[in-house]
Design goal:
Keywords (chain A): Cytoplasmic vesicle, Endoplasmic reticulum, ER-Golgi transport, Membrane, Protein transport, Receptor, Transmembrane, Transmembrane helix, Transport
Main location (chain A): membrane
Membrane topology (chain A): Multi-pass membrane protein
Largest sheet of chain A: 2 strands, antiparallel
Number of strands of chain B: 0
Pfam family, one (chain A): ER_lumen_recept
Oligomer: heterodimer
GO molecular function (chain A): ER retention sequence binding
Strand content of chain B: under 5%
Structural class of chain A: mainly alpha
Chain lengths: ~210, ~10
């Protein structure tokens, strides 16, 4: 555990909580892509099956349980409790274009050809692109609520901090996991355009809106 | 191929 890893995890947690609170306080999930939220629930579920097979630490177990719990709570909000506010008309990204290639790739490029390991690999690849329906939705509507941009910022920051964590671990522990690193790079790059808008607009007090 | 996949990260 190093400072980048810990702040990365906390940033991830902050993102998830911000989203849940935003929906709860405003009683609305407007502007949120339910499809991205489904993908994140799939990511956590397929990655954390090792909760049943191995124990790493109390920290590790509790964070996994919290992430999974929050992911399903978010889904419950979007598709049940606040379903009337869900903007499905703008949430039109075709997730099969992500699921099929990612599923295929996880069978082809993995550390070990075993069910749990393939599911872990699948979750790493899927996470790297799971935000695309949300970004697509924002590009379609041309705007995002400020609180939604805070959510996206912390979600993007988390993987960027993990990149520093991996550099750290490579130098000080000789550890590296090529699958996680490459997927983490892809994931972070997908946020770059958003980071730019966040810094140049949202942090200066303006609403995030895209030119028509 | 890695010796033993060890996923201690989240």
């Amino acid at each position: 555990m190093n400072v980048f890893r810990l702040t990365g995890d906390l940033s991830h947690l902050a993102a998830i909580i911000i989203l849940l609170l935003k929906i709860w306080k405003t009683r609305s999930c407007a502007g949120i892509s339910g499809k991205s939220q489904i993908l994140f629930a799939v990511v956590f579920t397929s990655r954390y099956l090792d909760l049943l097979t191995s124990f790493i630490s109390l920290y590790n177990t509790s964070m996994k349980v919290i992430y999974i719990g929050c992911a399903y709570a978010t889904l419950y909000f979007v598709y049940m409790k606040f379903k009337a506010t869900y903007d499905g008309n703008h949430d039109t990204f075709r997730v099969e274009f992500l699921l099929v290639p990612v599923g295929g790739l996880s069978f082809l490029v993995n550390h070990d050809f075993s069910p749990l390991e393939i599911l872990w690999t699948f979750s790493i690849y899927l996470e790297s692109v799971a935000i695309l329906p949300q970004l697509f939705m924002i590009s379609k509507t041309g705007e995002a609520e400020t609180i939604t941009t805070h959510y996206l910022f912390f979600l993007g920051l988390y993987r960027a901090l993990y990149l520093f964590n991996w550099i750290w671990r490579f130098y000080f522990e000789g550890f590296f996991d090529m699958i996680a690193i490459v997927a983490g790079l892809v994931q972070t790059i997908l946020y770059c355009d958003f980071f730019y808008l966040y810094i140049t607009k949202v942090l200066k007090g303006k609403k995030l809106s895209l030119p028509a | 191929k890695a010796d033993e996949p060890n996923h201690d990260e989240l």
